[in-house]
């Protein structure tokens, strides 16, 4: 009877039954690969009929355990429900059917508008300078997007510069809802902070560098305040042009947070002591906080907004509604209008330059490590945190961050980047570290590299010497694949940043470096999850292509030798 | 810019007038019977999985939508029970009440063990049939592959705005709870909304939630005997008389349809699997003297779905 299945009217099928919502991949012309990562590749593509350009994110289906990946499903569901100028729109889904016989599994793509830049990429680009008015414009858009999300009971849970996409029309959009979820509590109210949650959520969220103290202390009843902390980090990052809190482990992250904004006490963070992760904190040196010293480039009003965003007390941390109305946005210089924001270098142009000058992004801190001191020896939180916001140059890198598990032999791949960190951190006089980017001997080729020959100026303030701690190399690979829990998947974007390290400070011996290169090549680079048109560095392939990277490295090496 | 969260994308005429099953030569009436039984099956499975009605409603709507999609396999390829399982698995997955594939498969194994579709609840079989590990693996693989097909077919539109909360809000706006029988009224209205989910006319896919809510209230008020405002109150909720009338008839016809189905199928089982379907088609072919498949079909209330009636000669 099975022949019954042979449809009588088969030809009519294709003609009649074609509906919008899920199109065929053949409707798109693939233009270039924008990136690839654990949960898929991202391509730039043009629609054959409308000629519009989109970013296509491939959904990988490795994990058969639960069928269609829940993270992708969640993201699709949320994006379909959302509609806001400052939230990335999901245009449709596209299906690629393998040509082979039978019912092979289809490959699915998420189609979103193509955005020219992501914020971290822009900040990395030495040719792009943000004026304060422009920063205000972006921050305002970010807050509007967050207000919309929070008002609709959605926690983004992966706020970071790499997830903020920006186009050449000055529009900022929040992207990557892979970790987002429904928030079951009352939404934030004007003037009332972010409220409190009644139920538990998983604390394995948010990329480490943007992870708020309450999450690091393992508060499970968290609130939209976690996204606001991330927004605060992004705010600071726009001035510093690099992540302001680049911790190397969850514990270290907590330490540098407390160094920056002050140690927690019953006033600044009521109830912190009863949080599960609070124990090691007791032994740390008290810090008064150094926000105003570190952010001299901010005027007092700006600083007060930053302070409100980086408040330790998650209940009192400013919510998006109030942030929009913060006086900062009502004082000179007023926020620029989107349409007045200058066009940044055309992506292709940018890409090419970056291919040469390896505009590398900082590595992400993968989310989902365990919190607390590792068993493997490095910093366990005993004793005072290292002074200042930067680590002393101890041999930490060799061991990898403590929450990444033992630096076992099975992780040959990550060894490269790990090692590079030691390159970056050790053996360098502080003076070089501080002055490096201003034209010190260890700078990369002039005009290239991540840092401009002329330190960017904001409001006439030379911020050069205050950059610390920038080259935390990537250590996501390997681990990326391991974690099976979708919540735990490393949220790594922007890989490849480690290369930039050597442009300015790697002068370890060459063999060592070659080893690293080899290690890099050997590994198959799984961890790079950079969705949606980030990192369009290169007309053809991405800067993260290993060959290219190696080429850069070789070139750089030559420069050093010279 | 912000869209109305209260609206759903609706099915188009083109989607409604044909189906891939019909292209495959399945009689329209049989298709309708199967869809109805499949929706009921989904509801039953949802109850057994202890899912809230909201999630079950999402699952039923995913199930209903599936058959309208461009790629939707015909019932010949994708048996209704697997599509139903995939729908409920998907609906639960995106809700706060995730269910494991194992639970879903167990529940469907139990439901499959009930010999009659329109069964008497007092005569349910005892115990849950055993699903062996290998059967489980096979079924799980099938479930996951159909899950993706369902997603594609529905264009990944996995969320539906449901009329339940709207209905409640409207009742409050109408001051319905000040009536002594206000609660009864609300309960009836909710019951109609649940009934409407199963409608072979796809009421939920052709009408917006606010209209469904208004029609359910109107109907419930008539039944319970609560007097709502004498004016055309439904216009306040943006529903015109014509749509209201259509929906009221639509809601009422589900009961009639169900009764006819029950009578037609009696103690038999509505074919859910491909094998059962083929068997059923065989039976029909024999009883009609090999002439055509369109035989012996109950004349259901019209849904506007034209019968394709393409005779399948050879076999």
Topology:
The complex is a heterodimer of chains A (562) and B (315).
Chain A (H helix, E strand, L loop, with lengths): L9 H7 L5 E3 L3 E10 L2 E8 L5 E7 L10 H12 L10 E5 L10 E7 L3 E2 H6 L7 H20 L2 E2 L8 E3 L5 E3 L6 E2 L30 H4 L8 H16 L9 H12 L29 H4 L5 H10 L10 H5 L22 H11 L54 H14 L4 H6 L21 E2 L2 E2 L16 H4 L15 H8 L4 H13 L23 H16 L1
Parallel strand pairs in A: 1-5
Antiparallel strand pairs in A: 2-3, 3-4, 4-6, 5-6, 7-9, 8-11, 9-10, 12-13
Chain B lengths: L12 H5 L2 H4 L4 H21 L4 H14 L13 H14 L7 H12 L20 H21 L10 H10 L8 H16 L5 H4 L2 H16 L16 H25 L8 H14 L28
Helix pairs in contact in B: 3-4, 3-5, 3-6, 4-5, 5-6, 5-7, 8-9, 8-11, 9-11, 9-12, 11-12
Provide structural commentary.
The complex is a heterodimer of chains A (562) and B (315). Among the domains of chain A are: 22-113, Phosphorylase Kinase, domain 1, CATH 3.30.200.20; 117-356, Orthogonal Bundle (Transferase(Phosphotransferase), domain 1). Helix content of chain A is 30%, strand content 10%. Chain A is built from 17 helices and 13 strands. Chain A has helices at residues 10-16, 70-81, 119-124, 132-151, 213-216, 225-240, 250-261, 291-294, 300-309, 320-324, 347-357, 412-425, 430-435, 479-482, 498-505, 510-522, 546-561, and strands spanning 22-24, 28-37, 40-47, 53-59, 92-96, 107-113, 117-118, 154-155, 164-166, 172-174, 181-182, 457-458, 461-462. In chain A, the strands form 4 sheets. A 6-stranded mixed β-sheet of chain A has the order 1-5-6-4-3-2, with no helix packed on it. Chain A has a 3-stranded antiparallel β-sheet with strand order 7-9-10. Chain A has a two-stranded antiparallel ribbon with strand order 8-11. Residues 1-16 and 346-562 of chain A have low confidence and may be disordered. Chain B is mainly alpha-helical and 315 residues long. Chain B folds into 2 domains: 14-153, Orthogonal Bundle (Cyclin A, domain 1); 162-315, no CATH class. In chain B, 56% of the residues lie in helices and 0% in strands. Chain B contains 13 helices and no strands. At the A-B interface, helix 1, helix 2 and strand 5 of A face helix 5, helix 7 and helix 13 of B.
